[in-house]
Amino acid sequence: MSLLSFDGSSMGTPDELSHPVHDLIGVGFGPSNLALAIAAVEHNDGAGDGDRVAVRFFERQQSFGWHRGMLLEDATMQVSFLKDLVTMRNPTSGFSFLAYLHENGRLVDFINHKTLFPLRLEFHGYLEWAAARVADLVDWGHEVVSIEPVISQDEVVAVDVTARELTADGNGREVTYRARNVVIGTGLQPRFPEGISGSAHVWHNHQLLHRVEEIDVDAARRFVVVGAGQSAAEVTAFLHERFTAAEVVSVFSRYGYSPSDDTPFANRIFDPEAVDDFYDAPAEVKQMLTGYHSNTNYSVVDGDLIEELYRRQYQEKVTGHERLTMMNVSRVEAVREQADQVSVTVRSLATGRSVDMDADLAVFATGYDHVDPRPLLGDLAPDCRLDAEGRLKVQRDYRVETSPGIRAGIYLQGGTEHTHGLSSALLSTIAVRSGEILTSVVGARAQAARSRGAKAPAAALRAFLR
Ligand SMILES: Cc1cc2nc3c(=O)[nH]c(=O)nc-3n(C[C@H](O)[C@H](O)[C@H](O)COP(=O)(O)OP(=O)(O)OC[C@H]3O[C@@H](n4cnc5c(N)ncnc54)[C@H](O)[C@@H]3O)c2cc1C
């Protein structure tokens, strides 16, 4: 296997540029860019010298981590393990979840388990295992702070991607790599309802496992959990189980938790072909499809977990010791930090009446927003084309549409729900999407080489593009 972590010597150096140039720099190293790194490694394995791609990634975490704050012990994946980093692109890859199980001596046990949905903890183990195998392509503990255009003869021919090393003393040095393409895979950022922000006793659910040890198991009396999605239900169940002397109040505007639709016909909305259908559809059809099928992912809960929470609540009614309460058709209006707790005001949307309650902690499981890449793109941002609603225009190959004269490619992994559909923020298509991005990058390089009169790409490249 050839891992191309470049010192510059093996990179192409276009005539007009004095620096060594990577084919691709990835911003962020979550599952999406990890899948891309593997696609690059597998491409390079079969490629001749001139056809290899030079790739490198920046990740601000010090080591690989996938939503660690929500790696609850019994939480399971919401997607089949077959939608791992590689299988949908290359079923024979040595980077599959099955290869991981095999290497870790659990393949037979897993088969007997008869599930498509492993524990999130186990899938995290898989992702870590895969990341460790390509770790030399990553600068860990580096936060990308700018992406600057490199101009030659009035064209943007490359970008300089600068990252700051995150050190305890805050004096980390800056590193800049030059690349023909940048792939932004910076994921999601936690969202609070308007007017509410995090504090000592007001958390977003992504912080849960990082901070839960701060709360004394014997002393805690009440928790408020806000939201009706999968994370909210998981947090409710977790707090109820861990803090056996405390009341857990779940607040949401729905009448009850709604189940996620993971039935087979609906699930096809996450197929690679569905991306084509969605991409080619008119704007109103895109909107319609997103509306019809948002209950495959948003504000919905796994059916088994709904049953489990109901079972617990009913059992408490029978025993007369009620700790699990649902405040449905309700909203949190305000939170006020107090010395050792938080005061939460909840208003019933049905009656209009409000109640105040004190709690040891309020956890907002109120979702995530995609991180807008434009601030990072700096001077390049005005050259990115927007649709009528001010969203980035993105080509089918995930390349942002730019003004003429921008030869450097800006690709997105995530943040393309408006163009490519519901799978954009999920794991479902990351294997295929990464292959498509790499194919586009390799194809553009071959095209540029051809137009410079260079030799056509070798057989290995053609095989990969097929
Ligand atoms: C609790 C939880 C459970 C989920 N479970 C599932 C599931 O079961 N199935 C499913 O399909 N989806 C699930 N999702 C959706 C989730 O978006 C995807 O699983 C996945 O995380 C997408 O990968 P990503 O690489 O695009 O983004 P992320 O995993 O968010 O990774 C982005 C990475 O970029 C890094 N980064 C950000 N900014 C910078 C910067 N400026 N410089 C350097 N690095 C940066 C971050 O540190 C992070 O590591 C879940 C989401 C959550 C929150």
UniProtKB/TrEMBL annotation:
Its EC number is 1.14.13.59. Its cofactor is FAD. Pfam families: Lys_Orn_oxgnase. It comes from the Bacteria. Coiled coil: none annotated. InterPro entries: FAD/NAD-bd_sf, Lys/Orn_oxygenase. The keyword Coiled coil does not apply. Pathway: Siderophore biosynthesis. Keywords: FAD, Flavoprotein, Monooxygenase, NADP, Oxidoreductase. GO terms for molecular function: L-lysine 6-monooxygenase (NADPH) activity. It catalyses: L-lysine + NADPH + O2 = N(6)-hydroxy-L-lysine + NADP(+) + H2O. Belongs to the lysine N(6)-hydroxylase/L-ornithine N(5)-oxygenase family. This is L-lysine N6-monooxygenase MbtG. It comes from Kineosporia babensis. The lineage of its organism: Bacteria, Bacillati, Actinomycetota, Actinomycetes, Kineosporiales.
